[in-house]
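Give me structure tokens for this 337-residue protein.
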Amino acid sequence: MKAAVIYAPGDIRIVEIEIPSPEPDEVLIKIHACGVCGTDNALNKGYYPAIYPVIIGHEFSGEITETGSKVTNLKIGDRVTVDPNRLCHSCFFCRSGKEHLCDNLNSMGVHIDGGDAEYCVMLESNVYKIGTELTYEEAAFCEPLACAVHGTDLAQVKTGDTVLIIGAGGMGNLIAQCVKNSGAANIIVSDPISGRREKAIENGATHTFDPLTSDINSEIRKIKPVGADIVFEAAGNPKAQASCPSYARKGGTIVFFGCSPQDKLIEINPFLINENEQRILGSFNNQFATGRAVEMLMSGNIRVDNLISHTFSLKDYPDVFDVFGSPESMKLMVKMD
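Here you go.
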């Protein structure tokens, strides 16, 4: 089979390898579509730690072509997506209900082979059926949507809240829809790219601003004088992260969602964090949210058809990072067919 293998930052090659065989508790999935995300870009740039070489990609969908001898709830032909994280179920975090923080976490596309290939294997327990309501491209959004759902849960968005989202790429647009479904009254999106701001309006944003030409702080306070109830930083930009406390109200919540370079630091005034009793949270992975993401996509409560800006064939995968992050890009999708 063909696969996109990353050997080191900046070194991605399309290679021919053997089709994997499923273990008794695994299934073999013929992959149809796999999304490209910020983590993939960070791996390519060397910002995020990985075990090389590895097949890149973790946002995918496909159909089952083989089942292991112990698989009971899935069958050949089922259309599926996956939670791409294998857990140990025995460390402190797994045993205390924080499985997404597993000490022995193995994530597809980072630590173990991922979804930018013609086939992959995955544990039956990590596989979720999808209905015919979804295209394979739409179903590939289940993993990033699950992450957005988890971030929204952490933020504790309430009916009537004012929420600021910094960054209107694919994740920012998914978060905008999640907070809308949670009852946010004002959804403010900041992004320097006009096309992304337009998508954010389509996806539920009530206000959008260009941070290069607008004073975001004053614009927020025209909408809610005390500041935003919740601020999501979805771009992984250290400068933007450092500014978040100034946008949030007293008692407000700040969620660092974007994938930041692992060696970057920011300066924040701890006196103001203490004095204003603000919460700063990290949002990582997709704790128990994949099933909910599947339901939200299948019900139509989350729209993703307008987020795909570019589609690549697997053989052209090395070209995706020439487009990723460009002004005309949103969600990049790789199709295996």
